[in-house]
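Pipeline run #58 for the internal structure catalog. This entry was flagged by the ingest filter as a single-chain record with no existing model, so it goes straight to prediction. Upstream metadata was stripped on purpose; only the residue string is passed forward. Reviewer on rotation: M.T. Logging verbosity set to normal.
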Amino acid sequence: MGCRDVHAATVLAFLSGTASVAGLLAAVLLPNWRQMRLYTFNKNERNVTVYTGLWIKCARFDGSRDCVIYDPQWYTAVDQLDLRVLQFALPLSMLTAVSALFLCLIGMCNTAFVSTVPNIKLAKCLVNSAGCHLVAGLLFLLACAICLTPSVWVIFYNNYLNRKYEPVFSFDISVFIAIASAGGLFFTSVLLFLWYCACKSLPSPFWQPLYSHAPSMHSYASQPYSARSRLSAIEIDIPVVTHAS
């Protein structure tokens, strides 16, 4: 596998990263992080389920899809620590993943459209495609950690709320979407790391640029004085005279 080719691994990694970011966006916007189910013993009334998200809160009667109570200012008065942490963690994870996607796209475009023989004047400014994919993989791994840790904490914090108050709390679908998106980010980083390890030649340094120098530099660079042939003064200064027959 060569670093100068766009392989299915990098394309699959880009698609997987895009799907994971879309999943994170859905988890952030959906008001389905926690449910609080309130029961009533009055036969003339219906049970109420309170859906708690990161930004809004909605209360619905059983069998109804309309919100009886809709609080769009919930994000300013969140009283649950896990949801407050997620308000900062998930947007940060999305920003990190989008930066990784941008780097991955730069590396793919560079390997697909840039000539294999660079201009000698631009040799020091060339984009390192392998380095772009390596940094993108690290950023995807960081985004996975930022997203996964508070998302899993919601499950344990939900158990804590049930023990502290009443067993009326349950985590909702957004938790599963966030965890699945974190798994997609981890899978994306693994794909990029595998691509980098496969295309990296063993003798090269860990940070492998595609073009450490322009190919023509070796052809026209002057040799050091110590490498020149050491001719005697007679051979240099005195010309050889030949007699024509």
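catalog note: The domain at 6-32+78-112+126-199 is CATH 1.20.140.150 (Butyryl-CoA Dehydrogenase, subunit A; domain 3).
catalog note: Strands lie at 34-38, 48-52, 57-61, 69-71, 169-171.
status: ready for reviewer M.T.
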